[in-house]
Each structure stands twice: as C-alpha cells, then as structure tokens.
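Recall the central idea of this unit: under ordinary conditions, the amino acid sequence of a chain determines the structure it adopts. In this exercise we apply that idea directly, starting from the sequence alone.
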Amino acid sequence: MTRNGKSTGDYLSIEIDQPTKSSAKKRNPAATKDALLDAARTEFQRIGYEAASTRNIASDAGCNAALINRYFGSKIGLFEAVMEECIDLAPLSGLSPNEMVATLADIALGKADPKDDFDPMIIAIKSSGSEEAHDVIRNKLGNPMVKQLAALIGGNDADQKAGMLLSIVSGMFVGRVSVDADALSADNDDVLKVLLNDAMMAVLLSGS
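Accordingly, the structure predicted from this sequence is:
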C-alpha cells in the first residue's frame, strides 16, 4: 500500500537517513581548532600576517571564518596561537662553541628553502612589517628564543650574544629571499658557511 505516491520503504529510508544527515552537521571543536591552526601556519608562513586572509584560512580548514573568532577571538588571537610554537633549540644543548656555531650556520642557510616545514621564524620575518603582529612576535618568539639560546651559551652577556646570533640567522634569510643577491645564492653555500661561522664565533667568544 502507498500514500502520496510513496511506499512504506520510502518512509523507512527517510527515517533511517535523517540521523545520518543530522550527525554530519556536528562539528568536533578540537578538530576544528587543529584544522584552523594548520591552515593558519601555512598561510602565515606563505605571505605573513598582514596579507593573510582569515577567509582563506577558514576555507582551507573546511569551516566558516566566524569560527576563528569563536575559537581564537580574532585574527591576532589565531596568530598568537600559531606563534606559541617557538623553535626548539634543545638540539644545541651540550654542543661545543664550534659545533653550536656550525649548527646555527646550517640553520641560517636552510632558511631560504623551508619546504613545507613549519618555521615560526620565517613567519616572524614575513610579518615584521605589521605593527599588530610585532608584540606577539617579540613575546611569543623573539624573547623566548633569546632566553633559550642564552641559557645554552651561559657566561657574560649571554642574552645579547644570543640575540646577535639569532639576528644573523634571520638576516641570512632576509638577504637571500628579500635582497636576492647572486652573492648570497645557494651556489655559494660553502663560502657563506665559512663567513657565517667566523661572524658567529666572533660573537660567541666576545668578552671571554
């Protein structure tokens, strides 16, 4: 027997399908936040804070841009959450001054080819022109990195030495990507590594 042109099977099918459609609308907050953070890392690293679009970030995360405000308060709140992931300098622990400088030189030369790896220092450099992002970069990345490296260096003026070393590392990236001079190209890595080693060793041993 049918009603309004539909069989009993049609009504059962509708009733069975309804819970599935309803459950599909449910969103996992933790998964959504993670997806937004992943998309934000990519967007901020690609073009920096100022040029980054919350609409694009949300689209890449597969959700509505309004959820950025819900979970992070604002674009700057999302940026702050991304920059919480400070670079880990623990691998430098226990190294001799020569080994530490050689490792930092390798990091500096690798800044021009970040591939798909997340690197908050690259985000900081590309976002440095933004007044809104400045305090976040200083408080979530700059100062923590200096303190972390200074603790490994030890001795007099450790904070200042750490700041200088990290400035050399970030400066190499700026020189290669922004200035793009042939003299700083990857073809000259052998020469550049020697110069970086000399410059950073001079900082590290200063006053000792």
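Residues 29-51 form the longest helix (23 residues).
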